[in-house]
Design brief:
It is built from nine helices and nine strands. By secondary structure, the protein is α/β, with parallel strands linked by helices.
Length: 304
């Protein structure tokens, strides 16, 4: 934000040049070397306001990016958290560094930032493994639940340059949304696994739409598909890509929610988000099928 120069105020001296006044026989007083008492009293106030804002931003960054203490957990849980943290960090780094990536619709994120807005990333929980790698080192702040499992998730994603706010749809959600709103207003992008933390899988929850309505920022839906992967028997059917496979990120157009939106419009925007994520997932399925068809054709030709 541009600030007004302290010398450009209504208390400034006459703008006529000294040469003009001398020619007119007018004695020209020397300009005072200090600001007026009124403006001088405003300067410390401005400095204090800037210092307070900087301090608030520093506190916010400390809360979302610093690793949280785990001393409140039992010894066994602390060992599990530390082991899981390192295991998943290494696993994601080793596997995803081998993937061959392509992106579709990345211009939508650039357009959001070019317009002066921030992004509210939304995606399915099944994609979290690949998404952690693809969007790394951007300072994105992710909502994370308050469970023990979320503790080690929070720790390993911070190793990839993310921040976290702690809360979920059932516990601490209002506090976490307020923290995410502060992040957006201070120039930080945020993200939701929109069907988390416990499902049902592939069903949009209202957090992102609520946050967009209160902040005026843009919801950015995306989906990641991999050509070959392992699928875990968990509620979210988490997908872990196989090494050296291909991966594609599909990004949808941003969705804005008006601050004055009523119940019907909010529900309509949530339905639009659901439809967009379903469509992106469908594009991922089609991309995977096309890739598999090409692979089988190539294998057939080699066998001949």
């Amino acid at each position: 934000m541009r600030t007004t120069d302290d010398t450009a105020s209504g208390d400034s001296a006459d703008t006529r040049s000294p040469a003009h006044d001398a020619a007119a026989g007018v004695a020209v007083p020397r300009a005072e070397s200090v600001a007026s008492p009124k403006r001088a009293s405003q300067i410390p106030g401005r400095r204090l306001a800037r210092a307070a804002a900087a301090s608030d931003l520093e506190d916010l960054r400390r809360r979302v990016y610093r690793q949280s203490a785990i001393s409140g957990y039992a010894r066994r849980d602390r060992l599990i958290i530390r082991a899981a943290d390192l295991f998943f960090f290494i696993l994601i780094r080793v596997i995803c560094a081998t993937l061959r990536w392509e992106a579709h619709g990345a211009e939508h994120l650039a357009a959001i930032h070019a317009s002066g807005h921030r992004a509210i990333f939304t995606f399915w929980h099944a994609c979290i493994f690949s998404a952690t790698w693809f969007w790394r080192k951007r300072g994105i702040v992710v909502m994370s639940s308050t469970s023990r499992d979320a503790e080690y998730t929070s720790r390993f994603i911070k190793r990839f340059g993310y921040g976290t706010t702690r809360g979920s749809a059932t516990r601490g959600g209002g506090r976490a949304l307020a923290e995410m709103a502060k992040c957006l207003l201070n120039g930080l992008d945020v993200a939701f696994t929109i069907d988390g933390p416990r499902g049902p899988a592939y069903q949009v929850k209202p957090g992102a739409v609520t946050l967009a309505r209160h902040t005026g920022q843009a919801i950015l839906p995306f989906h990641i598909a991999t050509a070959r992967y392992w699928e875990l028997p968990s509620w979210d059917r988490l997908q872990i890509p196989k090494p050296f496979t291909r991966a594609a990120t599909f990004v949808g157009a941003p969705i804005y929610v008006a601050g004055h939106a009523g119940k019907d419009e909010i529900e309509a925007q949530q339905a639009a988000l659901q439809a967009t994520l379903d469509r992106l997932r469908g594009e991922g399925v089609a991309w995977r099928a096309a890739h598999e068809g090409k692979r089988q054709t190539a294998n057939g030709k080699r066998q001949k």
